[in-house]
Amino acid sequence: MNNRLRVLRAERGWSQQDLAQHLEVSRQSVNAIETGRYDPSLPLAFRIADLFGLPIEAIFLRD
Amino acid sequence: MARYSSPAIRRYSRRLGGCLTLYLILVFAMGWLFRHNPPPAPWNVLLAILPALPVLGVVWTVMRLLVEESDEFWRMLFVRQALIATGFCLTVMTIWDFLQNYDVVAPGQHGFGAAFFWFMGLGVGAVWNAITLWRAEKAADRA
Fold first, then answer.
1. Which residues of chain A lie closer than 8 angstroms to B3, CB-CB?
2. What does the domain layout of chain B look like in residue ranges?
3. Which of A16, A41, B19, B129 could be a cystine partner for B54, CB 3.0 to 4.6 Å?
């Protein structure tokens, strides 16, 4: 699944570690999600959406 | 593997250390006892099983890690590692069984039981996870 996480993070000037701290996950989790190697669970996807103030479908895109 | 620590991993490390210490103590103690003063039945059965308990404790420790780890990506990696270990162990033991069935290898386990190969499988799974993390880091560098 594609996503815009890297772009949204960059817009805020956050590092992967910064985003990981906001989401209370590991930096490796953020990296794996950003690079499309791991699709987050629905609860984590909602946390990401809430953090950026966007609907899930504006962050995670169909292949 | 990338550095990662969590309360669940610290508990896992403590439990693992305790189980391995207990295993070493029991395996040497029972070895000495059975060589020098073999206990009568039924105590011999109970005492012979004792060193197996910390090994079961290691399996329980790994299962607790899967339950307690709160980072879902790392939990997925640990689950995959345990599945690889289980598959590796079943593969080795099944092949070994058939080799014994047809008298290609000598009967008996020669000290290498299922737990030994499951722990080896955890090592294989750890290497697989390290490769996954390395590839993810490389992909991030390219982006």
1. none
2. 1-70, 71-143
3. B19
